[in-house]
Amino acid sequence: MTSVSWLSKAAIVAMAPFVGAIQLRAESAGAAAAVGWSAEDWPPGIIVPVIACALLYGLGVLRMRRRSGRLPLRRVSSFAAGAILLLAALASPMHEISEQLFWVHMTQHEILMVISAPLLVLSHPIAPLLWGLPGAGRRAVAKMASWKLVRRGSSLVSAPLTAWLLHAVALWGWHVPRLFVAALESEFLHALQHICFLGTALLFWGVLFGKKAGRLGYGGAILYVFTTATHASVLGAWLTFSPQVWYAPYGQTSSIRHLTALEDQQLGGLIMWIPAGTLLTIVALVFLGKWLEHSQQRWAYTRTAHLIRTAGGSTE
């Protein structure tokens, strides 16, 4: 089973509970009819960059196929799925509803961080995006990449501990009530919040699935993912069981959807806690399985295993 396929299946399992909840709320409260589809659901500031990147990626794929004759289909499929989910989260009626319901806002964030981001990383998009540029553009990027400051900065942010910390700080920092409410009231801060979530998630998953993944090792990868699942679940549980409403603006809008502000917050906490935490735990278990398989293969080639096989053969 490829890494893309098991991640996709895990994503379906983990997201199923609150995808069902979205459908239930839409049917019971008429959410889809109330919000409707309008031009505001598809902001150019999101649509244009994503489509531009997709076109650049597609052009790069065509050029790479002409040069080498092949490019794994699973990578292209992974990029397409990640980009579509990115648009679904940020440029669709979900974005409009997220300003009225906290739990939809949490669904939006989890799609960015635990589904879209790893799918984009698994597509290994850097090479196709570079090949999509004209020759002068590729040379300019190569020149910038050779700068000492850029190389040092890249090594720093792609280090496992740095990526882990940046992702944790973004997750916890933006859920501080004052910052979260400020993001609801400012389009600029709201965009910055999403950039922080997606950017740090790309760094986080890049450490696991990128070319430098070997720096972690299986044990390090398990610890890396499991600790993230733990602290994210703690935040989700805190939101779920808190007797106080953290984000006052939702107290004025959640009633439109027949929810109290506290019920809305509890649903959002559950989404962060259970489905997202489940997906991260599944990833950690996959790495555990790979670690055990690798250890078993190494054992089979040790001198001890050889002696055991020899002794067993001599007694027959």
Provide an overview of this structure:
By secondary structure, the chain is mainly α. It is 81% helix and 0% strand. The protein has one domain (3-314). Helix 6 runs parallel beside helix 15. It is globular and about 60 Å long.
State the shape: globular
Number of domains: 1
Whole-number radius of gyration?
A: 22 Å
The low-pLDDT segments are 1-37
Helix content, binned percent: over 70%
Key words describing this protein structure:
single chain, 316 residues, 17 helices, disordered N terminus
Task: Chart the SSEs and their pairings.
Elements: H1 3-29, H2 31-35, H3 44-68, H4 73-90, H5 93-98, H6 102-122, H7 126-132, H8 135-145, H9 148-157, H10 160-173, H11 177-185, H12 187-209, H13 217-241, H14 249-253, H15 261-273, H16 275-300, H17 303-314
Helix pairs in contact: 1-6, 1-16, 3-4, 3-7, 4-6, 6-12, 6-15, 10-12, 10-13, 11-12, 13-15, 13-16, 15-16
Tell me briefly what this model is:
By secondary structure, the protein is mainly α. It has helices spanning about 5-30, 30-35, 45-70, 75-90, 95-100, 100-120, 125-130, 135-145, 150-155, 160-175, 175-185, 185-210, 215-240, 250-255, 260-275, 275-300, 305-315. Helix 1 runs antiparallel to helix 6 (about 100-120), helix 3 crosses helix 7 and helix 6 (about 100-120) packs parallel to helix 12 (about 185-210).
